[in-house]
From TrEMBL:
Residues that span the membrane, as ranges: none
DUF402 domain ranges (all copies): 47-161
Pfam families: DUF402 (PF04167)
Superkingdom classification of source: Bacteria
Organism: Myceligenerans indicum
Protein name: DUF402 domain-containing protein
Length: 195
């Protein structure tokens, strides 16, 4: 399946993923190492091209990224692993649009503001706060307060030790036979719903 980010009414990036679980409420996807990103060939890009494109990033590397998405929820949960022993690194609460299903996968938009809880840490920390405050008004016009409120909601749940996800996902391993999927040729032209 394809994770697309739609920025200000235009496809901004596409990431080919593997569907791990989908029960209509919880969608779990995996981006394996080597998965090649797709960037649109043209567009008006009112906030500029995707930062990964500007940095020259063309594919995902390492042990891959597992993503937990809940229907109607304005964040997802990323899991990462590192090293030869595939050591779990922690929980990354990625503020983003709730997933909108498409014929090829789902659409979303990363909100830049994130909450990171390292596996060996006693508590969490907010990430990219200054970047969010600087670029957010142009990227998410009229939505800054809503995004901040979602960050505060996540923090309050974590402070209350309300863990709404299954921590067993930290022990998940991908099927050894899986390879990085390709993007479909029409990924940029599949209709989308702009927010």
């Amino acid at each position: 399946m394809v994770r697309r980010e739609i920025m200000r009414g235009e496809p901004w990036i596409a990431i080919p993923q593997i569907c791990v679980h989908d029960d209509g409420d919880l969608l779990v996807t995996y981006t394996p190492g080597g998965a090649r990103f797709g960037y649109p060939e043209s567009g008006t890009f009112p906030v500029g091209e995707h930062p990964w494109k500007l940095a020259g990033s063309t594919y995902w590397w390492g042990h891959g990224r597992l993503e937990l998405h809940w229907a109607g929820v304005e964040h997802s949960l990323f899991l990462f692993w590192e090293g030869a022993e595939r050591e779990f690194q922690g929980w990354y609460f990625n503020l983003e649009d709730a997933p909108r299903r498409t014929p090829i996968g789902f659409d979303t938009l990363d909100h830049e503001l994130d909450v990171w809880w390292a596996a060996d840490a006693e508590t969490y920390e907010f990430k990219d706060v200054e970047d969010f405050e600087t670029t957010g008004p142009a990227r998410y016009p009229g939505r800054m307060e809503q995004i901040r409120a979602e960050g505060a909601r996540i923090a309050a749940l974590l402070d209350a030790r309300d863990h709404w996800w299954d921590k067993a996902w930290a022990d998940w391993t991908p099927d050894a036979s899986w390879t990085a999927p390709d993007l479909p040729a029409n990924w940029a032209t599949v209709p989308f719903e702009a927010r």
